[in-house]
Amino acid sequence: MTAATATRSELAVTAKDRYEDDAVAVNRVLAGDAEAFDGIVARWQGPLVNLAYRYCRNRGEAEEMAQEAFLKIYRGLAKWRQDSRFSTWLYAVASNHYRSAMRRKRPVWADFEKVEQLMPTGDLSVEADEASRDEAVRRAVTSLPPKYRDIMVLYYFQDKDLSETSRIAKLAQGTVKARLHRARKILETKLAGLLGNDALEASR
Known about the structure:
The protein is mainly alpha-helical. It folds into 2 domains: 1-105, Orthogonal Bundle (Rna Polymerase Sigma Factor, Chain: A); 109-204, Arc Repressor Mutant, subunit A. It contains 10 helices and no strands. The protein has helices spanning 3-30, 37-56, 59-75, 86-103, 124-127, 130-142, 146-157, 162-169, 173-191, 199-202. Helix 3 (59-75) crosses helix 4 and helix 4 (86-103) packs across helix 8.
């Protein structure tokens, strides 16, 4: 068995164990054991805070948004169809909440031109180091129209594959592909010559 095969096998076992743990916890909560939800929070708090951060770019706000998302998840546990992954449903609930939260306020980086302000000289082509380049791309993605931003966040920054991105966003895979393509084109147009064509992949 190769190292890569072993790693994939370990990840598959971990995912299976997590799915089973989540299912047990959900059933216990629905049976009246509210404390069983603590296990779900422990397993998913990090991922949901990170997801929220991709939307708002503020760690404190991301933690608050994640707490609100967990409340919605708790109240909606009975809606999870247990023939599908709990993580898919959980991400869908959280993503919907984050989109609603972001619609209630104007994004700080609502204009691609403001990406240049991340650099001291305003000249990304000269001054951008790797960390600043990555941050510029992430903020540029945040400023995309929501229907493109949400897909990009899931696919590029949460490492979801096309199938799971489609399920979480509740969109056909063809629609997801089209939005990813359009979003990349927008970013390439705005950032070409400033950060390089491979900046998006490098910032994942």
